[in-house]
What does this fold into?
Amino acid sequence: MPSKTSDLPIYVLNGPNLNLLGTREPEIYGSTTLAQIGEMAAARAKAFGLAVMFRQSNHEGVLVDWIQECRTEGCGLILNAGALTHTSVALHDACRALSHPIIEVHLSNPYAREPFRHRSFISAAANGVICGFGANGYVIAVDALAALLKDQPA
Ligand code: DQA
It folds into this structure.
C-alpha cells in the first residue's frame, strides 16, 4: 500500500450538468450517478491514505472559488469542468494559479465528439488528461494524482 502523501484532501470538482449523471444522456455518460462516483473516488483515495473533497456546481464563479480554496485547503485537483472545459478562461487562470498537481477528467472522449468539444481550456494548465473511461476515469485520476503527489517534495 502506498504511503500517505498529504493531510489535506484531494479536491474533486465537477462542473455544469454533472449533477444529472445517471439520467443525463446515459448512452454517452453512463448510468452511474455523481454520488456513486464520489464514493468510488473516496474509496480509491483512502487506499492511498488520502481524503477527498467532492463537489459539483453549475456556476463558473463557484468553481473558481473552490479552485482558489484548494490552494490552501487541498493537496491536488481532479477537475471535470463539463462544458466550461471548452469555454472558460477563468477556470484556466484559476488552475494556473494552483501549484498542486491537476488531472483533467471527462467521462466521454470529447475528441471523438463534436468539434466544439475538441478545445480544452483546462488541458494546458493540467498535468494530465483522462477521458473516455466513464465513471472509472475518476478512479484512474485518483491513481494518477496519488502518483504525482508521491513524487513531490514534502
Ligand atoms: C464532459 C464532456 C463535456 O464536453 C460536456 O460538456 C460535459 C461532460 C464529460 O465528462 O465527458 O458536460 O466533461
User: Anything to note?
Assistant: The mean pLDDT is 95. The beta strands are 10-14, 52-56, 76-80, 102-106, 128-131.
